């Protein structure tokens, strides 16, 4: 990493593909925690009760039951009550568990479609993603939010529909974001050697997992995006040798970019 004035710059080899995180990277933590999560939390009980005859929702409830360790044989009313309790507990603790992330995506769809929600994007992220795309670098998303939720966030963004920029999307169904094996699977699906792929994230444990899989990595630490309630994981950046930048403009691929 070099420093231009006071501003750290990550000078790295031009990648063949870039995989980006969303929360804290392309988009603000505050938007996810103060707008998206409360929207889903407020609507989840009604959403489940209104969609109990939908096979997808029934499958999701069964997945919640399994992941929460609830018994198979329960009266339906008791099962729903226990599943909702598990779901609210996961939301409270921000557990990145697939059935919850899928349900949140289903609920957010209503908010995006009515115009109540607009996906927050940092202007620097949008500008650079457009430039990299125009430069022939393939772009992918890897977020704990479900693939459907990712498409909504970029499709209904404050900058319009950004989905044409992306070649593909990955969520927790490919594996957890703190596991190196997930990045190896992503590299296989992207069809590039891991050392030709750049992963962008704000979470050091995710960066280390990607680095262990031989990805190039840049950490985002956005000075304006630090709500006290979700900040502790970011404090160990100082112990890392991974490039840390404040925004996408500070990611430099040299002459070819
Ligand atoms: C797909 S937008 C909602 C983001 C979300 O639900 C989440 O848990 C954030 O996870 P990320 O991996 O993007 O930090
Ligand atoms: Mg993140």
TrEMBL record:
The family this protein is said to belong to: Belongs to the HAD-like hydrolase superfamily. MasA/MtnC family.
Cofactor(s) of this protein: Mg(2+)
Keywords from the named record: Amino-acid biosynthesis, Hydrolase, Magnesium, Metal-binding, Methionine biosynthesis
Organism superkingdom: Bacteria
UniProt xrefs under NCBIfam families: enolase-ppase
Protein EC: 3.1.3.77
Pathway in which this enzyme or protein is active: Amino-acid biosynthesis; L-methionine biosynthesis via salvage pathway; L-methionine from S-methyl-5-thio-alpha-D-ribose 1-phosphate: step 4/6; Amino-acid biosynthesis; L-methionine biosynthesis via salvage pathway; L-methionine from S-methyl-5-thio-alpha-D-ribose 1-phosphate: step 3/6
Entry protein name: Enolase-phosphatase E1
